[in-house]
Specification:
Blueprint lengths: L1 H15 L7 E2 L2 H15 L7 H8 L18 E2 L7 H16 L5 H12 L15 H10 L3 E4 L15 E4 L4 H4 L11 H14 L3 E6 L18 E6 L6 E9 L5 E7 L4 E4 L4 H6 L4 E9 L4
Parallel strand pairs: 1-2
Antiparallel strand pairs: 3-10, 4-5, 5-10, 6-7, 6-10, 7-8, 8-9
């Protein structure tokens, strides 16, 4: 334990000069926690599923919404004391990336978090953040970090099975509800950029596994692996995805969701199956499946 504390403090001293203070918001507890987690992750066997490993280390952290909306202008916000569904996924991905780079550095973690949170890895104001998860997928596929699982057109079980349903994107929510976003409501220039981002996404068709198939067995849904990111497709007007989590196959042989839950008010592994969970949310249509390339 003494060695770990020494390593944490050394890593913090090394990273302070590497991160522009004016572009970063965090507390000392966050940097300490990141280095502690990365140190533990570095000791795992090569066969360890790091997505699940890190997500399990974050179980019980309180759910708090809008933890990124804390500054008058956009900065990289690091907060492992409070999480929502998006920041849970982003922090886990950044931890996994940093571990695969052989680093336990808070500075490297922040660099990776910037890469995945912002369009093509560049923080350039509020509108550069990947606000819609379809944006997030596009940006991180271009950078080579993840790939979306979509099925095959000529699958013997049926075209694209189990991704048999499709959604045509019609994304307008942020530009039509600017008052819901503290950093957007009084910024006409940012609103214009957000509208342009939405227009780039509109009209595209994406494939997903419909809710009715999510009760199938692990063998039948073999395309979904433990630790995959599950993006829940919604029919709510103007949106593409309404919730995120990580796939975990339970001892019951069914798919479960590890997520930052507004209902449970903390990060949990849902005791009910994913299909049962989604039945309680009628606006949820199914899931898109995203996998980190480093975990394939």
């Amino acid at each position: 334990m003494k060695h770990l504390k020494t390593l944490v403090l050394f890593s913090l001293m090394m990273c302070c000069a590497a991160i522009p203070v004016q572009a970063l918001t965090y507390q000392r507890a966050d940097s300490l926690r990141v280095v502690e987690l990365l140190t533990k992750g570095s000791r795992q066997a090569p066969s360890e599923n790091l997505m699940v490993f890190y997500a399990q280390k974050l179980l019980g952290i309180p759910y708090v919404g809008k933890t990124l909306e804390v500054n008058p202008r956009e900065e990289l916000a690091v907060n492992l004391r409070e999480l929502d569904c998006t920041t849970l996924v982003e922090n886990v991905v950044a931890l996994v990336m940093t571990t695969h780079q052989g680093s336990t550095s808070f500075a490297d973690f922040c660099n990776n978090l910037t890469k995945i949170r912002y369009r093509d890895g560049r923080l350039d104001g509020y509108a550069s953040r990947n606000h819609y998860f379809s944006e997030w997928i596009d940006s991180n596929e271009r950078q080579g970090f993840i790939r979306e699982i979509k099925g095959k057109a000529n699958d013997s079980r049926g075209a694209y099975y189990p991704f048999v349903d499709a959604q045509k994107l019609d994304i307008t929510y942020m530009s039509t509800h600017p008052s819901s976003y503290p950093m957007l409501k009084d910024d006409a220039a940012a609103l214009k950029l957000i509208k342009a981002n939405e227009q780039r996404l509109c009209g595209r068709t994406v494939r997903y596994i419909p809710r009715r198939l999510l009760e199938r067995s692990k063998k039948d849904l073999s395309c979904v692996k433990d630790g995959d990111i599950l993006a829940i497709v919604t029919k709510k007007a103007g949106l593409d995805v309404s919730h995120l989590g990580l796939a975990v196959w339970g001892r019951d042989g069914k798919l479960h969701l590890l997520n930052a839950s507004q209902i449970h008010k903390k990060v949990v592994l849902e005791p009910m199956t994913l299909e049962e969970y989604m039945k309680k949310h009628p606006s949820q249509l199914g899931v898109r499946v995203i996998r980190m390339k480093s975990e394939e």
